[in-house]
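Comment on the following before class.
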Amino acid sequence: MGGQIRMKLYLGNMVTTVTTLMIVSLVGFVGYSISNRSNINFWGRRACLFWHMVLLYAALQPRDGLDKTIQYTIDGSCNPGIFSLVSVPNIIGCVGAAIIIIAAIATPIAKSQHMREIWFYVMSGGVMLKIVVMEIARIIQMF
């Protein structure tokens, strides 16, 4: 894949640039949390902050055009996004979203910091699953 195509894929316009920076910040936050896990005393706060970062990313995520695909499926008033409504990336994305939501609900209910830490890792795993699958699918879609 040429450098120009790769740059367009991640920094081609304002939307892709912002979402690329958000992905880097999510991955960086998870990496930092894992590498400094012995120094973290309040996993619930960290999970809450991470949950808010994920929500912001989800709210600003027109990267794959899922909203357009749904609108196209309902009334055909616009062009669809890059994936069909029933596709592997969208199905895996829904599974990842379910994992994230379950972990976000379970984290504040957890009684111990150890369980909150585990739920943070579960939530992080759901986010990483979604990011990896979506980015691989976008790269494959370019060919």
About this structure: The two ends are 9 Å apart (CA to CA).
